[in-house]
Structure formats: C-alpha cells, structure tokens
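Handoff note, outgoing to incoming analyst
You'll be picking up this chain. Sequence as last confirmed:
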Amino acid sequence: MGVSGAGFFVAAVMTPWAVARLGQYRWIMVCSATAAVLEPALGLPFAPVPMLIAAFVLGLVTQGAKITTDTVIQSTVDDSYRGRIFSLYDVLFNMAFVGAAAVAALMLPPDGRSAPLVITVSLIYAAVAAGMTRFPHP
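Most recent structure output, in case you need it:
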C-alpha cells in the first residue's frame, strides 16, 4: 500500500506537468496505455519486486487519470449541476474499486495468482486507452 501511495503522490506532482504538455485526454490515454502494457509485464511473473513496481506504476497512472478526470468534470459541467455530478461520479469511481476487489476475491485462487485476472485488467486498461483516442486532442 505504501508503494502504491507513493505512486499517488508522484501522480499529484506529475499530472499538471503532463497535462500541460499532452492535454487532458492524451494524458488519460497515456496512463491507461501504460497500465495496459506494464500490468502483465510486471504482474505475470508474480514476483515481489516486479509486483511492487507494478503497485507504484498503477498508483501513479490510476491517480493521474483520476486527477485529470476530476478536472475535466469540474471544468465542463455547469455550476448548477457540478456538485451533484461530481458526487455521483465520485461514488461510482469508489464503487468500481469495491466492485473490483469483490470480483478479484471471487476469481483469485488461494495463492492469489491469476494470470487470467492480470490479462483481463490489462485488456480493460487497453480498451480505455483505445476509447480515449475518440476524444479531441487539442
């Protein structure tokens, strides 16, 4: 958790810089594509050091994408709806984490190693990255 938290911190520092250079949608795409590639590369060996690196990278890219998404919502939603929309979005985001943990608990074997789960998560990140190519890139 500490290594993932360090990734969150680096995302808070790095995201404004990355968004200034890439734009919001490209940064989300880069975060998702990075996770899609590194999730299986670091996760499939199921070794402690690559798994710690994966925790850091996933902390960085998931928080980087969330910070950027929060900014997009806050800057594009009309003031009269912003609080309600942001609250709904935040609840859905947190529900996704809880849901993912529940699904993982049901899917994981007793030793906690599941190549199909690692590949599935990687494919979800790849789908998000591909989907982000449909948004404008100013």
